[in-house]
């Protein structure tokens, strides 16, 4: 039986005192109290019932601690204060219900049961109301409650939680104190140090610091650390993953309560933070700049549930730190600006003197009456006059007589309008010459004087002349480029036109058709066609579209071998001399180079109608990056042809390489010789330069790049190509019917059975239908599939099939380098030689490559 039985309390059948007691009243009604120190509710004394009835109906949080053990009975208001401890707290002994403040409650029970009262204002306690410790502040009033015997049977407490008010006041006081402490600091590091220390102590944090993040790296210059190590230094953030780093870029605070469980952190990031003794943290962005971000970091060594108030406090501290840092930066900037201004003021006078003395422009102070009172040293440097000469003579005496009236009129207008003006005139030099000067003059406020700045235009005008010369050179270059494109295109068309002409005439000559007179006509027609072919080749050379076989050539040997031919060609009135030294190999097409050398020699002969001397020389030359000839920097062999003829004026030199330009008169030349040589040199990566003057002869310099390869002497080992040994079926593909007809006749004469196709697609259909040719002869550029594309298709399906590309176009774009080529127009002998070379090659050797003896005619 409970202790209350000693009072002979009679059981009460009803619980009317609990009516209107809210949720806590119903919990008391439903609970079995027999196992508690209070005993069954039927036997509760009237004093207890009355007190419980009063507190249950009160809106103010009230708790009753009944009996020596302090059994807790409370109302709904107190249940809100109890938080997560409710409802288990109801009916528990106060010492066990609030173990974290057991000693405080022991004192309360001792005083209250002894009949005393207690009052606490803003009492601070640390309670575990929501599973974690939290600071709370309360106003507490404790009074004893008397039982039926008139003695204290329990202690009643009326409380009011003041946590929000006290926390706000303390928070405000903390922030005000921090702001006051930060205000006098004028350096960012000092501001960061103080803020980190204050905030770390306020939040009982393990570590607080400011960091700068850029390029995946975090740099910490100083930190506040308590119970953990310092992390001053640079740390990689790559392991933190894109989500966390993305939050920094967004500028929002990053709050992590448990490093080990936060899904934004991968295992590598967790391990790194744990190694640095970080269990939880708050990061707040202070500065977001182009190079990166700056943040304030607060860390706990163990997992921690940051309260909303703590997160807010960190952000407010960050705002004050940011303001203080920006103020310090602004103050520092202002201080530096003031220092700069003071320095500028201090040196202004010296700078003005230096400007006056060192200026390349002529500075002067003069009056409207015509005299100068001050002149800068530049006057003497530019004009040669002494300062005394300039200050003792009126300035009008130095002006060119033709420019004097306009100059004085401009100065007079400036005096009237009081506005600066500009003009040009010519000023006398001490040595008797004149210099063009551009003047800027401005009036002074006194109405008597003006200042003048004169700029020497000699260099500017020279540059303008150079610019005009460069523009003229550009116009000439554009004209030559346009002519090159035009002539190159016309030459390509002529190749296709000449192919059936030359092929047909060649066949007539070979078959000896017609009478003697008719055969002579046919021979004449063939010779004319060959001349047309040569003309086309020269057009292609000028347009830089001729097919070349550049190899390493011995220029010395070429000149020596051709000296006899050149001497015989020029005749006895021309004394041919050779000036040669040992030279490295040059990169050139042997046949084209011989033709170019012969062309230059013939041109030199025509420039010496009365005879003279022709010198062929060759030297190795280095060309720097800047040169007057437009050559690329590098090493060259310079092949020179010098004559003692009539020479050329500047206009003739400018037009010398134009196609069809000639000074020889009608019928004495095509005007393509130099154009061909110029195009050849440019196509090889070199150039052609001309040095000449009327009456002093001409020197033509052909610049050829030095070859990186060694000279190959294949002539001694070469064997003449025999006619094709393998006779069979030839598949001929060409979209031009006349070209196809002429080529088919040639192949037929060579004992081939010819199958013709007007396109690559038609050729493929024939092959798919069972045609098995022994050789493929195809045009390159055709509507639809090109000849090269056809060859590529057949390379995989018929790898052993020999292929010859026949094209009227000389460009190599789109043509595989290892496919033999024959350029239109051609004769049967040239076609036969190509086929013989192709058939003679073993299958595994591959086709000859261009530049290494490739078949091109």
Characterize the structure shown.
With 857 residues, the protein is α+β, with helices and mostly antiparallel strands. It is 41% helix and 22% strand. It has 23 helices and 28 strands. A six-stranded antiparallel beta sheet has the order 8-7-6-11-10-9, sandwiched between helices. The chain has a five-stranded antiparallel beta sheet with strand order 2-1-5-4-3. It has a five-stranded antiparallel beta sheet with strand order 13-12-16-15-14. A hairpin with a 4-residue loop joins strand 12 (362-367) and strand 13 (372-375). It starts with 21 loop residues before the first helix and ends in a 17-residue tail after the last helix.
C-alpha Rg (nearest Å): 54 Å
Query: What number is the mean pLDDT?
Result: 82
Low-confidence stretches: 1-9, 666-672, 714-726, 844-857
Beta-strand segment tally: 28
Categorize the overall geometry. Answer: elongated
Coarse structural class: alpha+beta
Percentage of helical residues? 40-55%
Give the terminus-to-terminus CA distance. Answer: 132 Å
Please work out how many helical segments DSSP would assign.
23
- Percent of residues in beta strands: 15-25%
